[in-house]
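Lecture notes, unit on protein representations.

Consider one protein chain, 325 amino acids long.
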Amino acid sequence: MGKTSGSWLFLGPEIGEKQAAIDLIRKNISERGELEETVYYAGETAVPVMVSAMRNGSLFAESQLFCVKCAEEIKKKEDLDLLSSCIQSQAANAYVILISEETSVAKALEKVIPPANKRIFWELSDSRKAEWVETFFRREGFKIRKEGIETILELVENNTEALKRECSRLTLFLDKDREITGEEAEKWLSHTREESAFTLFSRIAAGDFSRSLESSRMLLAAKETPPAIFAALASCFRKLISYLAVKESGGGEDDYRKIGVSSPGAKRDYGAAGRRYNSTAAEACLALTAEYDMLFRSSLSFPEQILMDRYLYKIHTFGAPGAPS
């Protein structure tokens, strides 16, 4: 095994397939003996601390696996040089996986990873997501209608990890003798879904500032990363812009279905948002979301909740009656 053949770089927003690739690496290493695994979050753990652990070895395990999440946050030259040098000189029984939801990290890190061990996990296309959901339920012994699939895809985050989690919950409540309809899928998803960026958007759409603050606090307390929250909210505001365009053009049901607004829940949320925001305000919300995403990435020392509260205040102000648009 070459010096860097035990290192990988996994990028991109598709969390489920990325996690499956990590699980496979873990399984393969574990077959060689006892494995000790450590997970670091760049920005929370200093790079010298990571490198010290990587170089010290384990007293109790044959192999060590180090997963460094949010690797895009490693930007200082001294940190990049230290970690790159460590990866290049790592022991034969030490393995490192650099992980990011972005599509690139610092070049100093990318160049020490073998090309064959670099992979970007892109979001699934709409057709692949629909196929994934249908296959999941068929494998579990359920039948599901097209509108049931569309409802699930509208209400669940755009990655297979979230889809697997929510679809697994649905199987606990649904009847195998009945086809899953859109109405039934929404009914049980609303009962079982956890707080997410999409429930946060529902609060924003409804103009409920206090519940938006509560929702954001729950997400941050659950260690949901701000970039992931903003990515989901950005997709919601893009969909809102499309919704408003269809509405203004007098489009029909098929037009709403094409943009992913066909379930009762989606119609409720985007209908409410459409009454609060016009196209100009929705564009401003999208721009503000991108602005605060960048602000979070560059302000690691500033309290996250204060920044999030400020963002939500501005978003609600855009939608307030009489606000400039």
